[in-house]
Amino acid sequence: MLSMSAEPNATPAPSVSIVRMAPGDQRLTFEFSAGGSAAGAALFANVRLLTSGEWDRYPCRGESATIAPLLNGADYEIRITAETPDGTVLCRSADRLFRCGFVPGTVVAYLHPEDDTFIASGNATCSPSICAAPDGSLLVSHDIYRSKGGQNLTHVYRSEDGGQTWRFASALSPCFWGGLFVHRGKVYLLATATEYGALLLYESSDCGMSWRGPVQLLEGGSSEEGGPHKAPMPVIEHAGRLWSGVEFGSWRQRMHCPGAVSADVNADLMRPESWVCTGFLPYDPAQVSDVRGYPIGGTIEGNVLVAPDGGLVDLLRYQTATCVPNYGKAYMTLLDAEHPDQPPRFARTVEFPGNLSKFYILRSPSDGRYYALSNRVTTETLNQRNVLTLSVSDDLIHWQIKRDILNYADNCFPEGEDKVGFQYPSFLFDGDDILAVSRTAVNGAENFHNANFITFHRIRSYMR
């Protein structure tokens, strides 16, 4: 029997897609791509209010466009059509949803909570990470989340003007909880396959446009049995090795145990045998004299850092909401840099402004001090994440609040405080500035936790 196949020179089927959306104040900026015969066709953006049913048409040229003015606070639908000169529609994109309104910072990415384009992974933006690529561009990654969803897709974006504008670069799957870092001219993404899935590593030699891998560093688990847990956390170099925090456990098990992975700086990072795991430290309430009770969730999202005395420590989010005191304590462990396969040891707790959600800490190359972005709690709501605060420490033990970077109380957001979040920060230093990214919920997010934006923020003169 003969099989039928396409001719080698056959024209690919026409296709068009919306690859990035960035709603703002009375406007929408969006990016699109066309393939096959649609690449030479006329493209039109068709936009309508979900309540009206009438489409407005806007010609699209290049690879991105902006439509304004639009109504703030209203839900819109957009699709792109590729058409011949006589108006015949060759193809159309999937319908995408958006809502305009004021957004703090610069929008990197957006996903409306009822937009099911990526529903196989989720419908909320999550886990932002940022790095400076070897070619001078900035890269930001984020995954797409939904509770009990696939949670396995990450998008990468690129800026060539210091974060003023962003373009879609690539997508990776399976990839969740990923953190970007650069080593010897290549970009890497340390991630899991899904929630509590295998610990994976991707590599890019073209600054995030394409990726090699993944390779598996740790075996995956599940929410029921526990597995690797991480977030976009610092990857640092110390004692000839790269280090980053990783935990093991699950929320369903009510506990995560801290640890770390490391690799020799001269090793091929894409060889799994190059990596060593410390093992994981079970929580022992008897070791902690200044916190009473059992921290449901344990200790997660650790910042591996070199302490002033040259030792290696991991400062972690500490789920003390069910303890006494219920707020204000982070959890510190000691790592053995000379024996990277040895489990961490409990060191102490640390008074810290924002221990109940992910915080991110780096040591400044300019003044040698440690700077943190965190969500300090200013109300009786312990899971509050609508204040993003910059703090500083000389020793990782004593922390001083410098200033709030974003504060719900300072702005005229239409939603209640339970619908707004500036959370899961990651950042890097850029001269006198900090370049940060936030998982931002505003303008119609499902709630403060299930965000709809990834936003970029330049914090000027952070040492001031």
List the helices and strands and how they pair.
Layout: E1 15-24, E2 27-35, E3 42-49, E4 56-60, E5 64-67, E6 75-83, E7 89-92, E8 96-99, E9 106-110, E10 124-132, E11 138-145, E12 154-159, E13 167-172, E14 176-183, E15 186-192, E16 199-204, E17 212-218, E18 227-229, E19 236-238, E20 241-250, E21 255-264, E22 275-277, E23 299-306, E24 312-318, E25 329-335, E26 345-351, E27 360-363, E28 370-374, E29 387-393, E30 399-407, E31 421-430, E32 433-441, E33 453-459
Please provide a written account of the structure.
With 464 residues, the chain is mainly beta. It is 0% helix and 48% strand. A hairpin with a 4-residue loop joins β20 and β21.
Tally of helical segments:
0
Overall tally of domains: 2
Average pLDDT works out at: 96
| Net shape | globular
Fraction in beta strands? over 45%
And the CATH topology of the largest domain? Neuraminidase
Structural class of the secondary elements? Answer: mainly beta
Structure at a glance:
This protein has 464 residues and is mainly beta.
Main attributes of the structure:
single chain; mainly beta; Immunoglobulin-like; Neuraminidase; 2 domains; five-stranded antiparallel sheet; 48% strand; globular; disordered N terminus
